[in-house]
Amino acid sequence: MLQSDIAKIMSLFSLTLVSTLFLVGSVGGKPNGLTLWLIHRDSPDSPFFQSSLTCKKEKTGKFVSQSNHRASYLSNVSSNSVHPQIVRPQVDIQSFSYIVKVGIGTFKATPTYKEYYLEMDTGSTLSWMQCEGCTRCFKQTPGPFPKNSSKSFRPILCEDGLCRPKICDGKYCSYSVRYLDGSYTYGILAKETFCFNSNTSKIEKVESLIFGCGKKNNIRFLDQNTNKVAGIIGLGWGQFSFVTQIHSVSDGRFSYCFPVINQYTRRPRQRIPMTYLRFGADIPQKRGLSSTTLKRIENQSQYHLDLRGISLNRRKLNIDAAVFALRRTGHRGGCIIDNSGTIYTRIIKPAYVILRRELEKHFSRFSNLRRFRGNSQLGVNFCYERQKPEGFENLPSITFHFKGLNADLVVQSEGCFEVVDKYHSPNNREYFCLAMAPSDVNSVIGAHQQTNQRFIYDMKNNRLFFHPEVCSKNA
């Protein structure tokens, strides 16, 4: 196969694999619940629709690089409690999975709030956004939040009980967020009113929400000339988590169900399925849910799981459970579930080597398959070419076994592999690649492997519930 053909095929893979969605407002909710509508970035409903394809082509291949940065971050993050020195990975077009559109502040205007998009992050506690008067600013539309004009903006003072240990900027409590690539945001902590639209046209308000008001921000969100992202909304563990701060609505619980997004769901005249982020009483009641322990390690904001093993087509592989264990020295090992920056699952290398070897044995039984190495720069290099188009048929499932009774996350072939059919390939052949990669650091269950599964995070009871579900059907 020509090297140029391989490059074209891997480019098609990268365009297929990005499944960025946008959260654009509340669409309903019970008295003690909240439901937010998610829109895929390639949908005509997306505020980024005009530039989405251009951006993806310009950023081809960065999804794997981002997942690598994310895996490294999730193993080296420091304490993320009241006023953390937070460490997060590089932010670019592939670094986020969801954007939330919120109304912020109280102004003498109609509407009385300013609307902004914030990146949703299950791996961070603190929500923050760039504020007017910043001395170092990244480009965004609309401009930074005009805090001085908002009647409800209240900076937190250093003597406030929330500011411990005391990290101050003058008389105000401050925060600091630093990224692995050297980018950062720094500012003060404040309280502000956040607003959401409801299905009754009523504005639901969350008053006195604590967030970070960015003063010095050296970060790249999307394309610098068209960026509409103003900051982060954090859903991780911690006192300042959005989930924790809206406890009267969330009861410490949130849920999502990611639809499968691939070349078939992206075809013309086929609308990309919608889905929802649900809190509290709005979470669907299901029977027969699998569950496992949801861990918080040393006040970190990430959600840790106790991974015990892996199966291929329901046959458990001979992997010592010890390879998945968390090693206290250096905060390495262990397993994290992440949908904010890890598109592909990362598997700790000793386990990945065994999985790959068993996959090679499995595919060796098919005479119509031919191996090719793909593109090492993309990190997706376990790939096959096949003559007869089959889509996801005859591709195996992979199961992750977690601590607990029947706590098995069965990932069907659509979540395990990516396929480029003959109509999109440069030589009229079909190709597929394993949508997972090895890691020297830890294991991370990525967003692609979470498709067609209902996940419910219960922070109060330290449990993660999950169950197979067709997420394109009113999820």
UniProtKB/TrEMBL annotation:
GO MF annotations in UniProt: peptidase activity
Source domain of life: Eukaryota
SUPFAM superfamilies associated with the record: Acid proteases (SSF50630)
Protein keywords: Hydrolase, Protease, Signal
Peptidase A1 domain mapped to chain residues: 98-467
Gene Ontology BP terms: proteolysis
Short name of one Pfam family: TAXi_C
Signal sequence segment: 1-29
Protein family (similarity comment): Belongs to the peptidase A1 family.
Matches recorded under PANTHER family: ASPARTIC PROTEINASE NEPENTHESIN-1-LIKE, OS07G0603500 PROTEIN-RELATED
Protein name: Peptidase A1 domain-containing protein
Species of the source: Ilex paraguariensis
